[in-house]
Specification:
heterodimer; A: alpha+beta; Dipeptide-binding Protein, domain 1; Dipeptide-binding Protein, domain 3; 5-stranded antiparallel β-sheet; 4-stranded mixed β-sheet; B: mainly alpha; MetI-like fold; 12 helices; 0% strand; globular
Chain lengths: 720, 317
């Protein structure tokens, strides 16, 4: 009997093996599947509660904003622009562009507190797309929007995303008070139904033009019946399982979710109820074929979790994935591949340099610190900090420790656009160039020399750096921070700069080694020869921010990123103590700068005036808040002040913050990705607004079945 | 025996309560995950913590937790990793695949491991024994993730014989699913086979030198017949608990193997729950695995009595 059972098990297993090895090549000849991978699978893509970037992954497929941006081509003409050099705004869930009704709403609805002097930028009506439907065919109308906003801001539900609608520049009137339970009346919230297919949006801060449309490229609507069903209460807290599975997801975008397995995979297929497949707006002239074609050629998106880059690489090379993001070790092989595409990111990483004198003095006074051998206080001296800023070639640093990234020179990265409509970059402006020249001590007396001067900046200027080290030595001796007992002109103490480590890694080690190596080169022959040392801290975990902010650790590569289309909003990060890393040793409310600015409202004749404000006030005014100085109101927000004025304020703030040497820019984030031969992008160069067009524009060289055949023909292993 | 079992069960429940209480209090004492400076969601996060009762005294919180578990079998709702979903349901969703992959691995490993152990013991000090012993040492020393990468590189990438990852879906007994699990099963099995081989060889070698083995040979049995019919049963006193121990490990899964082969099991759930500060998830896992560990220890203790009648647990003279 036992023998028969064993034989039976062996037969079953063998049959499994044979059948399983057979593979499954049954693919539709017209199907174009995008095989994607993520390291972490989304678990909650509810627009009201999602918290992470991973959780936002399905949004691109399932949701559509009021407006979207499409490349300009013959079908989407933009005045004065050649095809595929710019973009155009098209209405999606909206039927038309927003209509400014500030005048009327100000008078009819005093509850929204629109300033009496305001004539535009505060209230808009938005006509809704009557063809918009949920994937089950249920129409989406004004009631859907009002219900969704009411649930989003509900003080009971305490939704994570509620503050997105009142904390930033896009701030709905009355939303904060309602969400925080300070006002229970939803009719005081600036989003109401003004027609079956029309809503009126009232803002707490003026916003107009591109910034408004861009803020409306996202959406917040939910399917009422399903949303209510998914709510549960535990104790006093409400939880929602909306958008956590196929059954709790209702799409209104180009794709719908058809399968989902936690921590494993998700699959999207075309949502045939989506208006965009038939509305005539979602088509373009393909620059590769020259023919008109529909957007969203992709018929399905198969996404799976792949945690190991090595696995993803092997699968990509066997044709099982559409992209592969290069790791440091891949650059030698694939940097120059025709299939490699660089994607810049807006994040700038800088060395935050400790200047908290009190904390440093107290660390030196602690029992374990040997002041005869080591010193911390010298790092607070300005010449020393300036010297550090000139000790590193930023591009070399990037290529050594993180090849996908590039060097950063300023606090605001190369990607940021001050004029998204015309794709004009902040870093290309004269004002921004002068900031860099000042920071890196490059003379700019001749206007014509500006471009050449900026081009010459690498961040590495050993001669000037050595002068600063000499000056720092004299200052430190005079202040009693260090000694020179044998009068040999070399410090007796080593300046220890603790590199704040959250968790140790190869990247940290490489960074610290590089910093020390180059520091040794630059300080050779100076009073600090072999007397400056970066040392790694113990792993501080999540506490690393507190260690830095409280001056208990000295430096780290930290970064900020913001909206690439709004460099102006970055100023808050450096002058608002809530965000500042250096709040304990830099008070932006005590530093004033004077600027000649145009104080006339946008569109009127310029009125130049010299205005003095603190950095904090300049930043507030730049971001749409009215600041009163000497009885005069100033507001240099978007849509209120002219771009030249706003640029001069932005560059002045950047220059002023850089001059503290609390932040030394080092790296600009980027990644390089290989794209499968199965598909192609419609443009090669990355567009800061449109990227490469995303899933909407992706074109295919092979259908699924053709691709399988192609991979087989090539022996299952492709060359890139 | 019955009295002994009842005593052990009562002690187990007390131990479970103490461990659960300690873990609950310690984990609730952890500060919430750090947010970036000035994160606009700080207020709402704090308000949610208040609503969820995180600011109540720890013992009150523990009381509520116990009440919910004992009266409603409610371990709570995930508030970080799987927001809004019941932690017990998530665990129940993810546990089967872990069990199946590990079970296949054990079923694959036991006969091979014991077989090689017998072979090595019967041919002790021969070339066969030395070869098996050397391979066993390699098998034990090399971590399973090394096998995983080697299998992925050679069998999946170079030869294209097996898929890189486990297939999606819950058709765990379909042929395609079985094949997609093979790389993981093989990676997990090599170390386990080596362990069984070593344990079986060591025990069997000792038993083979016993007097009763001489008697068996004197009766006319061959060396192999004597080893399998008489010595193997005696050596099972040590081997069987090792097998049981491996079955317990089945429930916890392998973090690294599940990660490499994209197995959506429970392997990384524990560590993710503590890193992500998903306290309801952490507590459910703590209670489950503590209970499993305690039950397993009782089962192993009792099993000795069945394997070897000379062992009498709990008897007092």
């Amino acid at each position: 009997m036992k023998r028969y059972i064993a034989l039976f098990i062996i037969l079953i297993l063998s049959a499994n093996l044979l059948v399983g090895c057979g593979g499954n090549d049954s693919t539709d000849t017209d199907s174009f599947t995008y095989n994607d991978y993520v390291s972490t699978m989304a678990t909650n893509w509810n627009p009201h509660t999602y918290e992470t970037v991973s959780d936002n992954y399905p949004s691109e497929f399932l949701r559509v904003g009021f407006y979207s941006l499409v490349f300009n081509d013959e079908l989407h003409k933009v005045e004065g622009k050649a095809p595929f050099e710019g973009y155009k705004v098209i209405p999606e869930m909206a039927a038309d562009i927003p209509v400014d009704v500030t005048d009327r709403v100000r008078d009819e609805h005093p509850e929204f507190n629109i300033p009496a002097s305001a004539v535009s930028g505060y209230a808009y009506t938005i006509a809704l797309n009557p063809d918009a439907k949920w994937e089950d065919g249920t129409p989406i109308n004004a009631d859907t929007y009002v219900y969704s906003m009411k649930r989003l801001l509900s003080p009971e539900l305490l939704n994570y995303r509620a503050s997105d609608y009142y904390s930033g520049n896009f701030s709905i009137a009355g939303a904060e008070a309602y969400a925080k339970g300070e006002n229970a009346n939803f009719s005081d919230v600036g989003l109401y139904k003004s027609g079956e297919y029309e809503i009126t949006l009232v803002l707490a801060k003026a916003l107009g033009g591109f910034d408004l449309v861009y803020a409306l490229t996202s959406n917040f609507i939910v399917y009422e019946e399903l949303y209510e069903k998914c709510l549960t209460k535990e104790g006093n807290a409400w939880f929602s399982s909306y958008n956590t599975s196929v059954d709790t997801t209702m799409s209104y975008g180009p794709y719908k979710l058809v399968s989902y397995q936690k921590d494993k995979s998700m699959r999207f297929e075309r949502n045939e109820e989506w208006y965009g497949y038939t509305d005539g707006q979602h088509e373009f002239i393909d620059p590769i074929s020259g023919e008109k074609r529909d957007m969203y050629q992709t018929t399905a998106i198969d996404t799976q979790v792949i945690a190991e880059a090595a696995t993803a690489k092997m699968m990509f090379l066997r044709g099982e994935l559409m992209t592969y993001t290069l790791q440091a070790e891949d650059f030698d092989s694939y940097r120059n591949s025709a299939f490699a595409h660089e994607t810049p990111s807006e994040t700038v990483f800088f060395l935050i340099l400790n200047g908290y004198a009190d904390a440093i003095a107290s660390r030196e006074a602690s029992a374990g610190f040997d002041t005869a051998k080591n010193d911390l206080q010298t790092m607070t001296l300005l010449p020393f900090r300036r010297a550090i800023a000139l000790s590193y070639d930023k591009e070399l640093f990037a290529s050594t420790i993180s090849p996908a990234r590039s060097g950063a020179l300023g606090l605001i990265g190369d990607s940021y656009l001050y004029d998204p409509e015309n794709l004009l970059r902040y870093r290309d402006t004269d004002a921004a160039k002068r900031v860099l020249c000042d920071f890196y001590s490059v003379p700019t007396s001749e206007e014509t020399d500006l471009d050449r001067a900026v081009a010459s900046i690498t961040g590495y200027d050993p001669e000037t750096a050595r002068d600063y080290y000499e000056a720092a030595f004299d200052e430190a001796i005079a202040a009693g921070y260090i000694t020179d007992s044998n009068s040999d002109g070399v410090s007796d103490q080593t300046v220890i700069i603790e590199y704040c480590v959250s968790s140790d890694s190869d990247f940290m080690t490489k960074t610290v080694d590089y910093l020390n190596k180059k520091m040794a080169e630059v300080t050779a022959g100076t009073p600090f020869e072999n007397r400056v040392s970066f040392v790694k801290s113990a792993p501080y975990g999540n506490d690393w921010v507190n260690k830095l902010k409280s001056g208990l650790s000295d430096t780290v590569l930290g970064g900020w990123s913001g909206s690439v289309l709004d460099p102006f909003s970055l100023t808050n990060l450096y002058v608002d103590p809530t965000y500042q890393y250096d709040a304990n040793w830099f008070d932006s409310s005590s530093v004033s700068i004077s600027l000649d600015v145009n104080v006339a409202p946008l569109g009127e004749a310029a009125v130049m005036r010299n205005v003095t404000m603190t950095l904090r006030e300049w930043s507030d005014a730049l971001n749409g808040q009215t600041v009163t100085i000497g009885g005069e109101d100033y507001n240099f927000g978007s849509g209120i002040s002219d771009v030249a004025t706003r640029l001069s304020i932005l560059s002045a703030i950047e220059g002023s913050v850089l001059s503290t040497y609390n932040y030394i820019p080092m790296l600009q984030d980027a990644s390089v990705t290989l794209l499968s031969k199965k598909a192609y992008y419609v443009i090669d160069d990355y567009n800061p607004v449109m990227g490469r067009g995303g899933i909407a524009y992706l074109g295919y060289n092979y259908s699924d079945s053709e691709w399988n055949a192609y991979v087989r023909e090539n022996g299952g292993e492709l060359k890139y | 025996m019955v009295k002994y079992i009842i005593e052990r069960i009562l002690l187990m429940l007390l131990t479970l309560l103490i461990i659960t209480g300690i873990c609950f209090v310690l984990v609730r004492m952890l500060p919430p995950a750090e947010l970036a400076p000035g994160d606009i969601h700080t207020e709402v996060i704090e308000a949610r913590r208040e609503a969820q009762g995180y600011n109540k005294p720890y013992l009150v919180q523990f009381g509520i937790f116990l009440k919910n578990v004992l009266t409603r079998w409610d371990f709570g709702i995930s508030d970080k990793l799987y927001i809004g979903q019941e932690v017990s349901a998530i665990f129940a969703d993810k546990l089967p695949v872990t069990i199946i992959v590990n079970l296949y691995s054990i079923l694959f490993s036991i006969p091979i491991g014991i077989g090689l152990g017998i072979l090595a013991a019967v041919r002790k000090n021969s070339l066969t024994d030395h070869t098996i012993s050397t391979l066993t040492m390699v098998g034990i020393s090399v971590p399973s993730f090394v096998y995983a990468f080697l299998i992925q590189y050679f069998l999946s990438y170079k030869l294209g014989l097996l898929p890189f990852l486990m297939k999606s879906g819950t058709d765990y007994f379909s042929p395609e699913m079985f094949v997609s699990m093979l790389p993981a099963i093989l990676s997990l099995s090599l170390g386990v086979i080596a362990n069984f081989t070593r344990t079986t060889r060591a025990e069997l070698s000792e038993v083979l030198t016993s007097d009763f083995m001489l008697l068996a040979r004197a009766k006319g049995l061959t060396r192999t017949q004597a080893a399998i019919r008489h010595a193997l049963k005696n050596s099972m006193v040590v081997v069987l608990p090792a097998i049981l121990g491996n079955f317990v490990a089945i429930l916890s899964g392998s973090l690294i193997i599940e990660r490499i082969f994209a197995i959506p099991g429970v392997g990384n759930l524990y560590i993710n729950s503590i890193n992500g500060r998903d306290l309801p998830m952490f507590m459910m896992l703590t209670v489950f695995y503590t209970a499993v560990g305690l039950i397993a220890s009782i089962v192993v203790d009792i099993s000795y009595g069945f394997i070897d009648p000379r062992i009498r647990i709990g008897s007092r003279k």
